[in-house]
Design brief:
Blueprint: H1 3-14, H2 18-24, H3 31-38, H4 46-56, H5 73-79, E1 85-96, E2 101-102, E3 108-115, H6 116-121, E4 129-135, E5 148-152, E6 161-167, E7 170-180, E8 183-187, E9 196-199, E10 204-213
Parallel strand pairs: 1-4
Antiparallel strand pairs: 1-3, 2-7, 4-5, 5-10, 6-7, 6-10, 7-8, 8-9
Length: 216
């Protein structure tokens, strides 16, 4: 597998679009698509290669680095800089705790670093997690505007809890309960907002909220 095939394979397994990865490294959205399909540029710039290697947790040599300049993953593990930690992407997406926020491209712009051990203790997997920002007040006092929530996007049997839900072109964060027969209630913590009744055909549960961060 050559470098271009390897990058395409890593992106597919991670569920990351090439456009989002291009933006992550500060390039135009078509940059990596052209690199993979058209061979332009001929090779990745050193800084781009390093960022991608760190994002995918692979050695830089897998993305075309010469051996002496390779991002040494095993050495990083020994030094404690990585290996014991997982970077969870912060996405340039807002999730509404109000009437609804338009969803944007799921572009990583930064990351939260979590202990691999802590995630395992919580039964979570780093590759299936992402962090997004809350806007609106319908989930107060549990979630406040500006909080960032960690979303577990694994496909698993439904259970009641706080979930990020897609309704058409909008994303909302609500407590979701099942009414049976493919019907769900979307409940706000703030009682000023009435419950919403939706069917499974009209919504998509993106993931379960498992953690939040926010200022006191």
């Amino acid at each position: 597998m050559n470098t271009r095939e390897k990058l395409a394979d890593l992106a597919q397994k991670r569920g990351s679009s090439l456009a989002a990865l291009s933006r992550m490294i500060g390039r135009n959205p078509s940059y990596l698509q052209q690199y993979i399909t058209k061979g332009s540029p001929r090779k990745l710039e050193e800084e781009d290669r390093r960022h991608l290697a760190q994002f995918f947790d692979v050695d830089e040599s897998e993305l075309g680095a010469p051996e002496e300049k390779s991002y040494d993953l095993s050495a990083a593990v020994k030094s404690g800089l990585r290996g014991d930690w997982i970077d969870v992407p912060r996405l340039a997406v807002d999730v509404s705790a109000g009437p609804g926020a338009s969803s944007a491209d799921e572009v990583p712009f930064d990351a939260f670093r979590f202990s691999r051990k802590w995630l395992a203790e919580q039964g979570l997997e780093g590759a299936q997690l992402s962090a997004i920002r809350v806007v609106g007040d319908s989930m107060e006092p549990l979630l406040r505007e500006g909080d960032e929530v960690l979303v577990d996007r694994r496909t698993q049997p439904f259970r009641e809890g706080i979930h990020v839900v897609r309704l058409g072109d909008t994303l909302v964060v609500k407590r979701v309960t099942s009414n049976g027969g493919g019907q769900f209630s979307l409940l706000s913590q703030n009682l000023a907002y009435p419950p919403m009744q939706v069917s499974a055909d009209d919504c998509a549960i993106i993931g379960r909220v498992v953690w939040k961060s926010g200022r006191l």
